[in-house]
Amino acid sequence: MGNPLVLVVEDEIDLRDAVVEYLGEMEFDAHGVSDGAAMRAAVAARMPAVVVLDIALPGETGLALCRWLRRETPAGIIMATAAGQPLDRVVGLELGADDYVVKPYELRELLARVRSVVRRIARAPAPLDPAPVLAPAAPAMLPVGAFRLDPRGLRLVDPAGAEVHLTQTELALVRIFAERPGRVLSRTALAELVGARGDGRAIDIAVMRLRKKLEHGPAGDQPIRTVRGEGYRLDGTGS
After folding, report:
1. In angstroms, rounded to a whole number, what is the distance separating the alpha carbons of residues 6 and 51?
2. C-alpha neighbours within 13 Å on the C-beta side of residue 223
3. Which end of the chain is more exposed for a tag (fewer CB within 10 A), N or C?
4. pLDDT grade for 236, boundaries at 50, 70 and 90
5. From CA 15, how far away is CA 208, in angstroms rounded?
6. Is residue 48 within 8 Å of 23, Cβ to Cβ?
7. Phi-psi region of 128 (alpha: psi -120 to 50; beta: other; left: phi over 0)
């Protein structure tokens, strides 16, 4: 099978070459390209395990390429963003990026994040078959274990149909999980998406409180699982 392929999409030649050389010295195959057209050609030639994607590319932006990668490939995505651009990081995560690094970054930090994303992909369960669309008039309720989330009104209901009281942070978290079932979400990604500014402890506390409200049945079935060293994952879709 060979080593996992990491595709580095970066228009700064010196940085791109340094990243490719460093990852190549580790357990990865690494290949670098400078723009979106070259990225698509590289993906067509060989599917990467992870794409390290600079946001500020010439021509087609990294955010647009992130959207394309998430739609067309199973590859993990790590966004590279400039310091002081939190909005770009949040948008990248919303579009489906798995993680991000802030430039200038240490090569050892990038290596750790690449390894983490590769592990998440290897552990991820097979995607569930999508439910048939029967009525396009209204968005479907999103399953959260035995509970259901109304994506329009951000209203969570329990199996009996009663509304569950959630704080704004808990509502944000449950929607993030419901829109990404089976996907491991790091504390860093969750903190960015809910505006916690990288506060992993605050995320742990918020998830703990949310999980208590999502326990169901005499066995206390819990749809949000902890993935040790990685983050959290929403399992199951209820009945």
Report:
1. 6
2. 25
3. N
4. low
5. 40
6. no
7. beta
